[in-house]
Each structure stands twice: as C-alpha cells, then as structure tokens.
Known about the structure:
By secondary structure, the chain is of the alpha+beta class. Helices cover 35% and strands 18% of the residues.
Amino acid sequence: MVGLANPPVVLVSLDGIAPRFVTPERMPHLCSLARSGGACFSARTVDPPWTRVVHASMLLGVTPEAHGLVDNSMSPLSEGVTSVLSVARSAGLTTASANNWKQMDSLIEPQASLHRIFIDSGYDPAEDDLMVDMFTSVWRARRPDVSFVYLCRTDLVGHDHGWGSEEYLSAMTEIDRTLGRLLAVLGEDTAVVVTTDHGGLGADHSATSDEVMEIFVAVRSDRVTAGSMWTATSTLDVAPTVADLAGLEPDPSWTGSSLIGREVPLVDHLLDLVEQGASVTYGEHVDMRAHALQTARAVENDGDVADDDLVIAALLHDVGHLLAPAGDHGFADHAGVGAERLGPWLPATVTEPIRLHVAAKRHLVATEEGFRDTLSEASLITLEQQGGPMGADESSAFLDETHAERAMRLRRADDLGKQAGVDAGTVEDRRALLERVFATGPIDPSLAYDACRCPACRDESSQQHLIDVSSVSGATALGSHRRDDGLEVQLRLSDGSDHRVWLPERAPVITRISTPWSPGYRPVARDAGDVDAISTDVAIDGLAHVRGIPTEEGEVLRFASTIGFVHETHYGRLFDVRVEPQAINLAYTSLGLPLHTDNPYHDPVPPVQILHCLQPAVSGGANRLSDGFAAAEQLRVEDPRAFELLASRPVVFRYNGGGFDHSAERTVIDCRQDGSIRAVAMNHRSLETPVDGDFALALTRFSRILEEGEIELTMDAGEAIVFDNSRVLHARTEYDPSEGRHLQGCYVDTDLMKAKARRVLAAATTGG
C-alpha cells in the first residue's frame, strides 16, 4: 500500500476548539477545508479530557486505560503502544513533528519523527506562527510523508478568559489564520486531517459535559468526496485515518478505525433530518416535515425580497428538536441547538435567523398588538417555556442583532406553516436550493460590493468602480437569491443602510489554459496571418509553428507586431542567430545547445520568443523543444523531493558580457500559491549558484525528463516557431558553420496573445 500513489498526510491539532463556536465567518479556513472534504463537528473526545491524555489517544490510537495517562504530568506511557508516526517510520516513510510543549513531544517515540521540531517554550501561544514557519521550511525542503503539527493558542486563551469569551472567539480566528497559512503551503494535493482535543466550559475543560467532550475532525483528501460528513466519530479514529491516507496498515493495538469510506453527503443528511420530522408533531396540527416545507414556501411567497438563504433557514429552522431530547412540545432551545449544529457548515445568513427565530416570537408578542393571537396552542405553551414576552431592554438588544428583521420574517412564516392539508411540495424539491446555498457558502461583503454591476456602483460606459471598496468595512451579507442572469446579494452597510448587489452571470474568466503535451504531440503549422490560431496555440501548448513569413531581414518584427508588443533586451529589438566571430553568446556559434530557457538572468524574463528562419542549415541545426510544465508535473509525481528542491530553493542566473552584467534570483520551478506551475527557468550556461549534491541530482532528474519528452522541428526558410519562454525549453543540434544558417528573432509580451486566446476560447465555449 505504501508508495508514490499516496500523497503526504499532515495531522494538525488545534488545542481547545469548541465546535459550538465554529462558523465559516469565524474560522473560514477550517470550514472551507471541511467543505472541500468531510468533517464531523459532533465527535467525542476521550475521558479524562486533558490535553496530554487526549493527544496520546489521538497519536497512539488507544484509550487512556491502554496508554496509562490520566493527566498532563510527565508520567510515562504504558508499554506496547505505538504512534502513527512510528508506524510510518517502520514502513519506511519519512515523518515530521512540530510542537512547543515537552509533555506533547514526549508522546512521540525518539525514532518516530525523522524531522522533529520542538521549542521548549513552556506552551506559548505566541509561537504558533513560528511553529508553522519552522515546519513549512522542513516541508518545502523534505516534504515528509506523514507529519504532526500542534497549535495551542485557543486552549490558553480559553483558560485565561473563558470559552466563548470575546478573547477566545478572537483567538479562534487567529489560529484559523495560522492554519490558513499552513494549508496554503501544503497545497491541494496533500491530505490533511485537522482536529482538536477538547472543548471547554467556563475557563476549564476538566468536566465531562458535552461542552467539553464534543470535538471535531475534518479531513481533506482526494479519497473523500467534497461536502461529506460523518455522523459520529472520536479521537480514537484519528490515527487509523491518518495511517489509511498514508497507505499504511493500522497497528493491531489501535482501538478506532479509519473514517475513509464511512462518510455521507451533508445535503443528504440534512434532508433526511427534515424527513424524520414526519414522525413527530410536538402538539401542532401538522408534522414537522410538513411544517418545514410550508414554512419554506411561506418565505418564498411573502412578497418581500427574494432570499434563498432564508428559504433554507425556514426549511431547517426546527431541526434542533430532532437533535436534542425533545418533550411533548419539542425542545425549548431548539433554535440554539439547530444553529449550533449547522453553524460550521452553512453561512450566518442561514444560521442566524434560525438562532433568533424563537427570540423573534418573544419580541413580536411583546411589541406587536395581536401577534399573540396568531400563535398556535402549542406555540403559546412553548412561549412560556422559552421565557415569555421580552422586556423593553431585551427587545432593544434583539433589534440590534444584524439578522433580527430576517428572523422576524422567518417567525411570521413559521406561524403560517401549520395548516393541515396544505401541499407544499416534497423535501427532495429543496435539494437543488440547499446544494446551491451550501456550495456558495458565506459571501464576503467587500468582494460582493466590489463586484456589483448596478449603476450606483459602476459607471455604465466604462464599467469602472464608482465606490471605494474600503468604504464597506463593517458591512454584513443578509442573504442571497439566484436569478437567471446572476446572483443578488443583500448587504447591510455600516451606516445601517441596505444595498442590493447584483452579480451578473458571466462566463468564467479564462486565466490558466495551458495543456501538457501528450505523447506524439506535434504543433500544427499555421499561416502567418492566422493570428488567433497562433495565439491560442501558444496559450494552450506553449508553442506555435508558423509558415509564410517573407524571408527578408526584419520581417519577424512586422509579424511580431501582429501578435504582441516587442520586448526589447540588451540584444536589441531584433537579434540575428548565426555564426559570429567573437560571439557574445553561445547561440551565435555553430555548437549544439542543450535545452534551456532564454535570459533567466533578466527580471522579468522575456515572455515569448519568435525564431524566424531566413536560411536553414543543410545538415544539423534542428530545433529541439520540450514542455517544461509537463516535465515538472512528471517530476512532482516521480520524485517529490526533487520537485520541492527545484520549486523552493532560489538560484542565481547571471550573464556578464558584452558590456552588461545581468543577474536574477529565481527558482527553477516557480509555483503559484495553489501549487500549479507558473514558470520554469533552466539554463546551465548562466547558472551562477553552486549546487550541492541533492540539488544537482534534482536538476539532473529534471533534465532527463525534459530530454525524454523533447520533440524535434526543422524549419524551412520563411517558417518560424513562437514559444512561451517561461514554459517551453529549446535547444538545437550542431551544424556546419560554413552552410550559412541564419535565423532572426525577437521577444514579445504575452498580454495581447492571451487576450486573443481567451476571446477565441470563450467564443468556442459559448458558441458565440
């Protein structure tokens, strides 16, 4: 099972995160990871819920009774227990660990962590960021197969200020920001498990109440379908899950089991909860399923502003009854329970009206004449259980809530949704809308305002901004509605005014359209006037073969002007490639040249090169070309360590001649933040930095892959090759200097070529 097919696995523990406080707005990186894979936000920790005890069970896969720890002291582990890192090392995998607490570090066997990062700082929350920085340095250089990273900020703030305090909630956002930095480095191809050890109540976590014992486990992996969840799991399942993701057999001593393959789609789970309502009425004239469907329909039909998020809130507003021990008239705090359980998964535009809909009833009874008369008998009974009508101060505080108006709208629909015999459709009818709201997630008010195309936000003729996006600081998204022509978002601005943002349905902007060369790839010869096809070939393949350019000197510049702007270098706007005495560049000799990119010592590197053949060689002088992006991706799969070295260690390229001294520092493989390849730079002739053995081997491996994938192309007079100098490496075979081979070349910027290619591809996609 162990091998290249298994991506690296990183286990991250965020100490002291209580799931009841997790929301996409507070912890966007954690919630995004959960949505991109699977999670359980109602998992259970072990007893006693002490940090060292729980982490022993997390890493060793056994109960406290088996590992022998009962508190946070430095007492030794029982014999016969094995950590997941030790299992990985025994299987020949590389491992790493990073923590700042000796009690934590002592849980990892001496030989289990090949790259052990430990700061004996006495459990300092300020060092979470340093811990991530140190680990990412190891990650970039070594890319361990299995790693464990421990972050502690939230636990200490919880002890100092209390779980749920403003300081604690801020610490959740801070630790999530640190997690986000780590995830950005790990990239999408790394399997990640994020969990916690315990929650907390007050300023402590020694009790075994639900507030303490409830934890979360989130997993992102290509083996977990996005939008999945687990209905139940525990700390004991973490080690088996990490091992499974790494392709390892579980240790026989472990108690839990892998989560992989046990997940269910979240949307299915939520719709099933609504279906379960068919079996209970809680004293109403209709069952809870019918009530949910009628309430959702009432929100749609109330004649107010369309709000898809509020429709979903209406559908799910009473699921708290089914998630708590309900009596004859349900569970009094079902609104809080429902919002809490849905909180990590759905945006506040859904969960806040749910949380507030009982408060809205109490407020309306207190402030609106005749509202009490609209309540059902069961609702009147629960009104008293829920605290009765609000007092003036309580009502004032309620109205200060951002979503108070939407909660009242939901509450009015709630009271309309209790009519026997009304057909409001089926639960399945709501699937598409629920999937849309879940997929959209929380809406960033600043981004929504910035993207708005309404006449108040954009000049109609230029489509330029009329507002400063910084002016929407403090704005809140109140809901959204999908239209045929786009998305409407309602914003509450910081001055209290509302703004309806219109985000038109547009074809996605084409930014990355390159495609790796397939076996047998050959560029199609294009006529010089077919500018769109040439531009598209370069955008997709990095290479175009052009014919029909006149063979007079300087014609390459005229052709270049049809596809882009000429990029001038120290060689001038135009350069001749032919044998020259006292050549200032090896290109101006008849020697064969290895695969390389041009001018990596320039900053920026000349983007696209054109080589126009005026007179070919009789023998030799053929162009050899290779796709650097395809080779880099192959290297990433076949030798991840070599890839990381070339992608993370900068080298200096230099040209010192002809009266110039050019120098630039860059990596051989340049990756974007998401791990995709942006550029390659390879030129042994100008590589200035001395390289050690590992780096030299990585370069050799990359060069071999490039050579294995190269194609050969011989140009006749009047033909040219146009290629992306940050992607396609070129070379030539040696030729007889007496044969008069003569090429002219220039460089062009890529903006116009990419713009033409996007237009062509967009038209092909839309049929326009």
